[in-house]
Amino acid sequence: MPTGKTSVWETLAPRNREFGPGTVLKAFTHWRLSKGPDEIAWLALDRANESANTLSEAVIAELDTALAEVEGMGAKGLVIRSAKKGGFIAGADIRDFKGATEGRDVEKRMRWAHGLIDRLAALAIPTVAVIHGYCLGGGLEIALACKYRIALSDAKLGFPEIRLGLHPGLGGTFRLTALIDPVEAMTIMLTGKTVHAKKAKALGLVDEVIEERHVENAVRAAVAGEMRTDRGSWKSGLLGLAPARQLAARQFRAEAEKRAPRQHYPAPYRLIDLWEEHGGDAKAMQTAEITSFSELLVSETAQNLMRVFFLREKLKDSAKRESGIRHVHVIGAGTMGGDIAAWCAARGLRVTLADLDHEIIAKAIGRAAEFYDKKLHSSIERRDALDRLIPDFEGAGVAKADLVIEAVVEKADVKRKVFDGIAPKMKEDAILATNTSSIPLEVLREGLAFPDRLVGLHFFNPVAKMELVEVVAHDQASQATLDRVHGFCGAIDRLPAAVKSAPGFLVNRALTPYLTEAFVMIDEGTPKETIDRAAEDFGMPMGPIELADRVGLDIGLDVVRMLKNNLDDPIPEIPAWLEKKVETGETGRKAGKGLYAYDDKGKPKRASGASPPGPEMTDRLLLPMLNACVRCLREGIVEDEETLDGAMIFATGFAPFRGGPMHYARSRGAADIVETLKRLEERHGSRFAPDKGWEALGWEALSGQT
């Protein structure tokens, strides 16, 4: 259903949500308690002054008080649910633990919280969690402490703690592995992925999946003991034996190493150790969970990953604006344009997709259908998304669109020609956005009658995985236009990073010295596998050679040429072999061959036996990137370090456990970085000269000494 058009049921849904009897017996700050004539108590969580429910210490303490009230009222059963529209409980409030340094203090607080959750689990009456929307982390642990779990069809359940450098800490490790197939339970916790209601029912994680109108009857059935539950698994019995757990644990560790190296991300391995040693002994596992969680929480990795969480929240907050965008017209159905169109349609927008080559449009629709089959959870969702994605062979959609996104070849004259053709057809309030990856908007706006409504929306490839969008402003763009495109990013579940128009903007400006230094190393005879290993050892998700192939050598070449022609940055000369590869069509992963050759699954074919990276190789790759980041701050391309760090993490995968490039600079110390750059400058040339922005930012601030 297109955004902005609401069904009758959606309009009435909040009124029809079942919270139990209307008379509130006791209203706490965050909870409200009621009881009906059937003697069933209802406890609704509505955290004060927050848009979503999270578990703070105050919320948990009030739950303890509310449970005492329930115990004293002679209720036959207890229902726990959320009064928030968006979902059940989004997890613990990590603001309570930000900056924690003492594991013993955390452990004391966690033992207290466990005692309260155990009280809920020990209630003598049937307890029912009614779950809609998100049910994550500590919220799922509250639900697991109930005897029954009833989910609405929109419920999403999971343990995302692993992404914060943690594992579940309020009983999830032993309650989930006891409730469902332990292998499935461990997979849920180790991946941090959510499961939708239908799969949760199949796993035994929830007992029923129903619609809102059936909640009251389902609750009564559960309290009366009439609800059928399918719990337990033959694997639970088998994996209660230590040898079986040891075998499974080895497999879990092998899988974890592929995604999260132990030296950078200890949490998965702590969770595996926990289960291997104590699986089947709930009390021992609970004690070990509390200690392990507390130690992880105060670690540098967890604290940095919490910082990443708040960086994400800051970018999300900047998208909380009204866009008024219901119809998007995309021009250019290649990989980027087609995938942008598919994503927007999946997020509820009406999309028309145009291209001069009708066959390319057909291929884009085919890719979209494959994507929807994999990622959308019902046939109705898939059908509706495809209905919203409209092939536009005549380009008629441009006249009706609220937002037109140009995604043609990265050449200024071609883009301006497109603008000339569509500008007279656009609505008076429609926004024109370019997906250029590097061309300054001052160049593209030449001759445009409404530069105030021109903006850059730079998506990253692959669109469905890369959360960041650079929102590129120029000095003639109106604030209303910028506000609307920020809101558009929020509507399609993307993170907008505000940057100013300049060659390469922020991300490509910072990535270019990283990639070009890798090219210099190739010319020096260093194996590409060794170069990538140096970056991966630092914590990058992939090395610069594989990244260049992933971006596309043709796109990378265009960016480097443009930056060399328009900036004073000391960029190395473009290798002749790079230009030759692009000329012959060896443009990277999308072509099946670039700097690497690729198999039919898109994985690079690496040579074995490459030498390990030398001691200075990582600094040669990473410090030019940090130098460029500082230069962008000095030039005002990006407003602050938080936006910069968020952009580099969510667009390039910059080692998240390090908290972002500028945070890494703070931790390492600017003085050390500058001295290292000077040594590299002496050995390798002026491209390593420290930018004067280091001094402008202040040694003390960057060294974390203030």
TrEMBL record:
Residue ranges of the region described as Disordered: 593-616
PROSITE patterns: 3HCDH
Residue intervals of the 3-hydroxyacyl-CoA dehydrogenase NAD binding domain: 327-500
Recorded superkingdom: Bacteria
UniProt record, GO biological process: fatty acid beta-oxidation
Pathway: Lipid metabolism; fatty acid beta-oxidation
InterPro entries xrefs: 3-OHacyl-CoA_DH_CS, 3-OHacyl-CoA_DH_NAD-bd, 3HC_DH_C, 6-PGluconate_DH-like_C_sf, ClpP/crotonase-like_dom_sf, Enoyl-CoA_hydra/iso, FA_oxidation_alpha_subunit, NAD(P)-bd_dom_sf
Key words, A-Z: Fatty acid metabolism, Lipid degradation, Lipid metabolism, Lyase, Multifunctional enzyme, NAD, Oxidoreductase
Catalytic activity: a (3S)-3-hydroxyacyl-CoA + NAD(+) = a 3-oxoacyl-CoA + NADH + H(+)
Domain 3-hydroxyacyl-CoA dehydrogenase C-terminal: 504-598
Keyword Cell membrane tagged: no
Enzyme type, top EC level: lyase
GO MF terms held by the record: enoyl-CoA hydratase activity; long-chain (3S)-3-hydroxyacyl-CoA dehydrogenase (NAD+) activity; NAD+ binding
EC number: 4.2.1.17
Protein family membership: In the central section; belongs to the 3-hydroxyacyl-CoA dehydrogenase family. In the N-terminal section; belongs to the enoyl-CoA hydratase/isomerase family.
Protein name, UniProt field: enoyl-CoA hydratase
Organism: Sinorhizobium terangae
